[in-house]
């Protein structure tokens, strides 16, 4: 057992740092550092920087443009991205649809879709949830009927993150209703420009437009856009969910945020001293930091075990629960740090304007973040569903 | 980065697991705990033959060059079988103090006997008021001619009853809480002026209240330099904290297994307990907490192995986590066993008792959270 970085690892870390210092776009950085919401183009600008360097699809097989990095290198890379406060990578193409296509797609589909994901030429979104199906994903009703060499798709998808920016959507659709609900689900790729696709915003309690309804009304989809066999959608969905859950804990990001909260506590006035003098607050912060350490090393252990044995399994559910608990706890601690100044509300357009912020500079995004992050224990399969997964698959209950 | 154990470490793990399965079932342990000694001196010598007692010492001291990770492997495996033989007082505490600070003569006299299992020792460092602060020492030692004269009182000394010799932390200068002025002296149990009140702890281990009145020991019994022992004591207590945390992680693993097994067989309302979702989710939580705690154990062991500058901080993070994880897993295991969980008859309660005492030994969660914050 050896958990320290080798000289090669340290050299790699230096290489990543140097690259980020030189290439992280200044305008995107300014927005990130000031809590200004990002536009579609900001995300793409940043992600293309990584694509150009060959550092975007880091987990993919090397033949499709992956890096072939060790777990340690990936760990270092993710930590550096977070330390530089870079935007989260939009995961739908690179972490979800991509792995599905290189695992289940035909050669033709791989050639057609993978390069555009790797190079950030196409923005993907995820058509899984439906108004009637929350964590009970298999109950989905969106119907795809085969007519000649086309599928005719009808139904409604919901909670579709950033659908307003997307070029393509990967969907779970029902191609057969005769058997049990898990059977008869298929995995279909749909061009968002197809006639009959309509996107309507859902505004969440933080006031942001992140998620959407996607209506599919007699949308014609070429049959060649089906991934895998008809009816294989459920096993593809499970594969994808396990992939989705692994990175969902957002640990490198949490490490940076906890460091930031420490800095805030050092400087934020409280009575005749600073927030850091409040022992009860600092106890909570220190406890969170210890929980984060254990989550980080649990993730590393899981990744190490996975690198020996292939794809993520039910372990990813453990990481999802642990990581999201921490995300919520830390978002709450930021709110506590602010006292009353957590309350003034600034809209996304207020934030983007040059108007002076109310209270401390960092305050405006704190409560929205807390509110927004109630989602993390709900999405990707609620944490209760994750417990069911672990109970069944790990504990054999 | 590599989390895998070496082949040798896996062999040690396997050796202990087999020993527990074959020679140390729960009913045997119960008999040992209730015996006069409270553990098996015969098994202790067996551990010596296995090489476990000499494992974490440099080759120059007659050891096998094992490090903190090896220690972790041994104690985690011991935890699964609730081994009551006093490894931590003898080997981790007394053995390491001698190995790190002792003179060649002291090492020659003591270590071979310690490694073979002939000699029993313990480290008398706690006092009624000191709790977890090893710098809080009022027991005094004064040099008079060629002898130190010791006066004081040591509380809940682990393995006191079986010990042939104590290592006693004494104040040779300074005031009660000073880090400077703490010295270590080897004191034979049968020294004139030493009296001990021996008893059992709730977890089956044995301990003593040790009173020292005008106890005279030769100057040559001083371990290391006079007044300079604090730093080494802290290092050794850190190592012992890692060791006992490993034991706790082994216990947690076993308690989760026992509980899972029990709920799969026990029927209520026409189905096994394991079918109730309310219980399933609680077992998932205890399962996850064990995994998360084990992650911190591995992290702390690796840092100590590397002599990392933040290894004390890592140990405090670990022991903080042990405290809260032990409470959750311990109490949930009893609850899920229902009434049977509170009977002497089942092993689960005995695992619970040991896990509960470990929450306190070498510092509870509050102590280590404070220490973590200050480091």
Strand content of chain B: 15-25%
CATH superfamily of the largest domain in chain B: Butyryl-CoA Dehydrogenase, subunit A, domain 3
**What spatial order of strands do you see in the largest sheet of chain B?**
1-4-5-8
Q: What is the fold named in CATH at topology level of the largest domain in chain A?
A: Butyryl-CoA Dehydrogenase, subunit A, domain 3
Structural class of chain A: alpha+beta
Helix percent band of chain B = 40-55%
Q: What is the gyration radius of chain A calculated from CA atoms?
A: 22 Å
The CATH architecture name of the largest domain in chain A reads Up-down Bundle
Q: Give the CATH H-level superfamily of the largest domain in chain A.
A: Butyryl-CoA Dehydrogenase, subunit A, domain 3
Report the principal-axis shape of chain A: globular
Task: Give the strand order, joined by hyphens, for the main sheet of chain A.
Answer: 1-4-5-8
Q: Characterize the largest beta sheet of chain A: strand count, sense, and whether it forms a barrel.
A: 4 strands, mixed
Q: Any idea what the CATH architecture of the largest domain in chain B is?
A: Up-down Bundle
The CATH first-level class of the largest domain in chain A comes to Mainly Alpha
How many individual domains of chain A? 3
pLDDT < 50 stretches of chain A: none
Structural domains of chain B: how many: 3
Report on this structure:
The complex is a heterodimer of chains A (397) and B (375). In chain A, helix 5 (91-104) crosses helix 7 and helix 7 (233-246) crosses helix 10 (315-338). Chain A has helices spanning 7-23, 26-33, 40-53, 71-83, 91-104, 107-118, 233-246, 251-267, 279-309, 315-338, 348-352, 366-372, 383-393, and strands at 124-127, 143-147, 150-157, 168-174, 185-191, 197-203, 209-222, 226-227, 269-270, 273-274. A four-stranded mixed beta sheet of chain A has the order 1-4-5-8. A four-stranded antiparallel beta sheet of chain A has the order 2-3-7-6, with no helix packed on it. In chain A, strands 9-10 form a two-stranded antiparallel ribbon. Chain A has three domains: 7-89, no CATH class; 124-232, Butyryl-CoA Dehydrogenase, subunit A, domain 2, CATH 2.40.110; 250-393, Butyryl-CoA Dehydrogenase, subunit A, domain 3. Chain A contains 13 helices and ten strands. Chain A is an alpha+beta fold and 397 residues long. Chain B folds into three domains: 7-120, Acyl-CoA dehydrogenase/oxidase, N-terminal domain (Butyryl-Coa Dehydrogenase, subunit A, domain 1), CATH 1.10.540; 122-228, Butyryl-CoA Dehydrogenase, subunit A, domain 2 (Beta Barrel); 231-374, Butyryl-CoA Dehydrogenase, subunit A, domain 3, CATH 1.20.140. Helices cover 51% and strands 16% of the residues of chain B. Chain B contains eleven helices and ten strands. Chain B has helices at residues 7-23, 26-34, 41-50, 68-81, 87-101, 104-116, 230-265, 277-305, 311-337, 347-358, 365-374; strands at 121-124, 140-144, 147-158, 165-171, 182-188, 194-200, 206-218, 222-223, 267-268, 271-272. In chain B, helix 5 (87-101) packs antiparallel against helix 7. Chain B starts with 6 loop residues before the first helix and ends with a helix. The mean pLDDT of chain B is 97. Classes of the chains: A alpha+beta (397), B alpha+beta (375). Chains A and B meet through helix 4, helix 9, helix 10 and helix 13 of A and helix 7, helix 8, helix 9 and helix 11 of B.
């Amino acid at each position: 057992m050896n958990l320290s970085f080798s000289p090669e690892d340290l050299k790699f870390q230096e290489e990543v740092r140097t690259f980020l210092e030189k290439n992280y776009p200044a305008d995107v950085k300014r927005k990130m550092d000031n809590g200004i919401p990002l536009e579609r183009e900001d995300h793409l600008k940043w992600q293309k920087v990584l694509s150009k360097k060959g550092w975007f699809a880091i987990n993919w097989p090397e033949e499709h443009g992956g890096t072939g990095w060790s777990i340690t290198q990936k760990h270092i890379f993710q930590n550096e991205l977070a330390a530089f406060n870079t935007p989260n990578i939009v995961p739908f193409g690179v972490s979800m649809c991509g792995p599905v296509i290189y695992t289940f797609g035909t050669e033709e589909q791989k050639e057609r879709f993978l390069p555009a994901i790797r190079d950030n030429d196409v923005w993907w979104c995820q058509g899984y949830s439906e108004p009637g199906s929350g964590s009970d994903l298999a109950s989905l009703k969106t119907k795809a009927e085969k007519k000649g060499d086309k599928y005719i798709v009808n139904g409604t998808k919901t909670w579709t993150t950033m659908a307003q920016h997307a070029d393509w959507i990967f969907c779970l659709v029902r191609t057969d209703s005769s058997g049990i609900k898990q059977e008869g689900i298929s995995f279909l790729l749909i061009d968002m420009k197809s006639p009959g696709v309509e996107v309507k915003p859902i505004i969440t309690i933080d006031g942001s437009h992140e998620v959407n309804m996607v209506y599919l009304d007699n949308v014609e989809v070429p049959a060649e856009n089906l991934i895998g066999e008809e009816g294989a959608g459920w096993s593809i969905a499970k594969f994808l969910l396990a992939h989705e859950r692994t990175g969902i804990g957002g640990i490198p990001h949490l490490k940076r945020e906890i460091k930031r909260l420490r800095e805030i506590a050092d400087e934020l006035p409280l009575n005749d001293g600073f927030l850091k003098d409040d022992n009860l607050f600092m106890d909570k912060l220190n406890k969170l930091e210890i929980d984060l350490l254990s989550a980080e090393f649990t993730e590393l252990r899981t990744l190490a075990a996975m690198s020996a044995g292939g794809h993520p399994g039910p372990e990813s559910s453990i990481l999802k629960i642990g990581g999201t608990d921490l995300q919520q706890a830390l978002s709450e601690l930021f709110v506590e740090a602010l006292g009353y100044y957590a309350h003034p509300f600034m809209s996304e357009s207020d934030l983007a304007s040059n108007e002076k912020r109310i209270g401390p500079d960092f305050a405006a995004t704190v409560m929205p973040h807390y509110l927004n992050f109630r989602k993390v224990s709900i999405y990707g399969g609620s944490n209760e569903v994750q417990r069911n997964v672990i109970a069944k698959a790990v504990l054999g209950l | 980065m590599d989390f895998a154990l070496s082949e040798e470490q896996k062999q040690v793990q396997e050796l202990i697991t087999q020993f527990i399965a074959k020679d140390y079932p729960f009913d045997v342990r119960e008999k040992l705990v209730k015996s006069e000694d409270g553990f098996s001196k015969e098994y202790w010598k067996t551990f010596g033959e296995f090489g476990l007692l000499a494992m974490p010492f440099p080759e120059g001291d007659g050891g096998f060059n094992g490090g903190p990770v090896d220690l972790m492997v041994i104690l985690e495996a011991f935890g699964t079988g609730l081994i009551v033989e006093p490894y931590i007082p003898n080997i981790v505490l007394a053995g390491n103090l001698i190995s790190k600070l002792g003179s060649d003569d002291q090492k020659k006299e003591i270590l071979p006997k310690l490694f073979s299992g002939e000699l029993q020792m313990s480290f008398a460092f706690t006092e009624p008021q000191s709790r977890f602060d090893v710098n809080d020492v009022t027991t005094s030692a004064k040099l008079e001619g060629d002898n130190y004269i010791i006066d004081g009182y040591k509380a809940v000394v682990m393995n006191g009853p079986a010990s042939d010799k104590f290592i006693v932390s004494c104040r040779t200068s300074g005031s009660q809480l000073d880090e400077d002025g703490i010295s270590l002296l080897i004191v034979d149990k049968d020294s004139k002026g030493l009296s001990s009140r021996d008893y059992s702890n709730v977890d089956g281990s044995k301990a003593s209240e040790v009173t020292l009145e005008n106890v005279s020991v030769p100057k040559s019994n001083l371990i290391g330099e006079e007044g300079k022992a604090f730093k080494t004591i802290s290092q050794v207590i850190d190592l012992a904290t890692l060791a006992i945390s490993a034991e706790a992680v082994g216990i947690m693993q076993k308690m989760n297994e026992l509980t899972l097994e029990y709920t799969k067989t026990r029927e209520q309302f026409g189905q096994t307990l394991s079918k109730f979702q309310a219980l399933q989710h609680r077992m998932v939580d205890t399962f996850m907490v064990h995994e998360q705690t084990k992650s911190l154990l591995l992290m702390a062991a690796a840092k100590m192995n590397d002599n990392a500058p933040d290894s004390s901080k890592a140990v405090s993070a670990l022991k903080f986590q042990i405290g809260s994880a032990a409470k959750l897993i311990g109490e949930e295991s009893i609850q899920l066993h229902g009434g049977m969980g509170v009977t002497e008859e089942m092993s689960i309660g005995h695992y619970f008792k040991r896990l509960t005492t470990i929450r306190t030994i070498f510092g509870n969660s509050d102590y280590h959270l404070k220490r973590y914050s200050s480091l």
